[in-house]
């Protein structure tokens, strides 16, 4: 009798779990991706889509979800919900959609904001698959040169130049060539990086399983037995670099920030307080003193860039300077932060990751984007996927993994056919 009860309970649990994981319709499909259409360069036509002013009458009835903010995080969540037939309204505080992914044109030059380069976009990578799904294959990326970055440390005669190559093995090998006395440190560093990249999904899982289970696994130490990612994620990168080598240049390379591509972008770190006195002045009319003040930063940075690349000097046609106040105005950032919520060490402790979830104490209010996972286009996009999964009570990652399998099979079939033809 008891045995029967146990068997029935087990069956109910197994069927329930199966239904929860696999039994719901998928928002994603091979068919929803079509070949990219022609690039739209007509500003008027672009604005018609991107700059739709708000009017109460335009709001459709019977909405299922309202997404506040049209960055890649909000858009990923919105697109995923819409693909399942949900009626979604996206609201944006700026006069155009896109968040960090929007562009603006001044004096005929197009400036990009927060997308200069990203990795992991090779065929059938999970990231590429999601990008294709939410844009129906309409966003195209240009592959960078193998030598995609140069790091210059120091100035004048003492300056050292290092080059960075892309590619899983090439990046590591090329660094080793430039640091022949530190090959062990480079190897160790890449081992940690590769392991972290492979196991990042476990961190996303912390936000998808019931919170009490996540906290139990972490607090009991079971999670640490399973993978070192839970400990590594909250580890001080400076301390890790210190433990690997004493070479200061290599330290810088291990944790440098990287920016490049359509216009030249120069970035530096500043304090919000330095600009605070102008916070209540209207945008674009903050006064000559503000303009002069921010230009001092710009001119210094440009001089510094010219010291490395002297031919730039007489190529300067136009420059735009943004400050933390710009971030607050155009991106709705608290205290002008570049990446929204602070990316400090506390935030990345595994337990904090498990607690910072898409659902909130406010019923039907969910968080998405970089605040719920990590900064970067990929980080914010995963924030959107986690959010959609939470809202739908359906882990859309499972659909993505199944789609990935399908696409890989399709690719293998196509390759086999090509080979057959050649023979
Ligand atoms: C200068 C710069 C360079 C970067 N370079 C790269 C790079 O090369 N590669 C990379 O991977 N990442 C880069 N990033 C980071 C990346 O762009 C961001 O992490 C990511 O795009 C954030 O997406 P999100 O959707 O979370 O937020 P956002 O894109 O900021 O979107 C949030 C949106 O919400 C809107 N909003 C806020 N409050 C409200 C409100 N109350 N009502 C309505 N709307 C509101 C904002 O206006 C904004 O449009 C860069 C960021 C910056 C700033
Ligand atoms: C990280 O480690 C470095 C070097 O060990 C230390 O100086 C720094 O204070 C640490 N930072 C944090 C936030 O713990």
TrEMBL record:
Domain of life of the organism in this record? Eukaryota
Q: Can you name this protein? A: Uncharacterized protein
**Organism for this UniProt entry:** Pangasianodon gigas
Q: What is the lineage of its organism?
A: Eukaryota, Metazoa, Chordata, Craniata, Vertebrata
């Amino acid at each position: 009798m008891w045995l029967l009860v146990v068997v029935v309970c087990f069956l109910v649990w197994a069927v329930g779990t199966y239904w929860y994981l696999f039994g719901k319709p998928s928002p994603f499909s091979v068919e929803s991706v079509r070949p990219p259409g022609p690039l739209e360069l007509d500003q008027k036509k672009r604005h018609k889509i991107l700059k739709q002013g708000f009017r109460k009458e335009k709001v459709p009835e019977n909405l299922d979800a309202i997404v506040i903010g049209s960055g890649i995080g909000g858009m990923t969540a919105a697109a995923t919900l819409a693909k399942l037939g949900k009626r979604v309204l996206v609201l944006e505080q700026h006069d155009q959609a896109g968040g960090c992914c929007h562009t603006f044109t001044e004096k005929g030059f197009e400036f990009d904001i927060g997308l200069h380069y990203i990795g992991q976009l090779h065929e059938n990578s999970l990231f590429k698959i999601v990008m294709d799904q939410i844009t129906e294959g309409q966003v195209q990326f240009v592959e960078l040169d193998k030598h995609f970055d140069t790091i210059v440390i120091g100035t004048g005669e003492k300056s050292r130049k290092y080059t960075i190559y892309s590619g899983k093995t090439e990046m590591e090998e090329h660094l080793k060539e430039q640091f022949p006395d530190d090959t062990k440190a480079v190897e160790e560093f890449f081992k940690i990086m590769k392991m972290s990249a492979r196991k990042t999904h476990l961190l996303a899982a912390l936000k998808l399983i019931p919170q009490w289970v996540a906290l139990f696994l972490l607090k009991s130490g079971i999670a640490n037995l399973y993978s070192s990612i839970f400990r590594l994620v909250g580890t001080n990168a400076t301390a890790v670099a210190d433990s690997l080598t004493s070479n200061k240049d290599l330290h810088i390379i291990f944790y440098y920030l990287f920016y490049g591509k359509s216009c030249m972008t120069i970035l530096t770190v500043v304090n919000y307080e330095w600009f605070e006195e102008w916070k209540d002045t209207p945008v674009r009319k903050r006064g000559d003193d503000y303009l002069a003040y921010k230009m001092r930063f710009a001119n210094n940075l440009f001089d510094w860039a010219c010291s490395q690349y002297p031919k730039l000097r007489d190529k300067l046609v136009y420059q735009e300077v943004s400050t933390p106040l710009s971030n607050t105005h155009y991106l709705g950032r608290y205290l002008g932060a570049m990446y929204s919520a602070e990316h400090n060490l506390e935030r990345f402790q595994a337990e904090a990751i498990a607690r910072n979830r898409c659902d909130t104490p406010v019923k039907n209010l969910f968080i998405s984007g970089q605040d719920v996972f990590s900064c970067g286009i990929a980080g914010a996009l995963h924030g959107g996927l986690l959010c959609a999964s939470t809202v739908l009570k359906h882990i859309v990652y499972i659909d993505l993994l199944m789609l990935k399998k399908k696409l890989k099979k399709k690719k293998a079939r196509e390759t086999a056919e090509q080979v057959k033809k050649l023979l």
